[in-house]
Amino acid sequence: MKVALFLTCVNDTMYPGTGKAMVRLLRRLGHDVEFPESQTCCGQMHLNTGYRRQALHLVKGFAETFEPYDAVVTPSASCGAMIRDWHPRLAPRTAGIASRVYELSEFLVDVLGVTDVGAYFPHRVTYHPTCHSLRMLHVGDRPLRLLREVRGIDLVDLPDAAECCGFGGTFALKNAEVSAAMCADKVTAVRETRAEALCAADNSCLMHIGGALTRTRAGVRTVHLAEILASTEEDPS
Q: What is the CA angle 18-59-90, rounded to 5?
């Protein structure tokens, strides 16, 4: 199977370690993954702010870049949802490649058929299901099924886990006060768990929550799902 990594803008510029973790993880599972260097933005920000023509340009570019691959795996449920849900609406000819795009937990569980990936992460962790993973991609409990198989982990429930963190991309910019209030509620819930780390499938949401956790000196770090799954005793995250 010819697999490509779609890293996304936030991960490329802010969290390159997540992409590296995905490569380590997939190689450990016996799969090669390529990184097409012509990849750019999925167009979500452009579409959400009314720049439909510019978004369409990026949609077509995505299809041209990834058409040769059997599967495209991404560490962002948000961008994955944009591609699967919106790309075919903007450009029907992209439906084929859009259907072969998977968020990481979907790829591991549904395509590779694994939940135990041989990970080791001896920390108390709570999981936040981001809005796009929950409501757009409908990944369900796939991330939790993967986390439960991690050796050494102390996985604890997050109160009101399904509540939005208030990020929402441009929503946080246009509605800063509402966004901050929603994030404060999420931080309170995270602190109640007494977790050492907050995990999610989107670094954009983790960046938003992580900023508030740092400002309130909560002592909780954020970590992407891929980095926990890539972690081993020999190569810890």
A: 130
Residue type, 102: Y
Stated pTM of the model: 0.94
Nearest to 135 by CA among 157, 97, 162: 162
The string of pLDDT tens digits covering residues 78-127 is 999 999 999 999 999 999 999 999 999 999 999 999 999 999 999 999 99
Query: In this structure, are residues 224 and 21 in contact, taking their beta carbons and an 8 Å threshold?
Result: yes
Backbone phi and psi for residue 130, each to the nearest 5 degrees, phi listed first: -65, 160
Listed in sequence order, the residues at least 6 apart from 40 whose beta carbon sits closer than 8 Å to its beta carbon are 58, 61, 62
Nearest to 66 by CA among 7, 132, 133, 22: 7
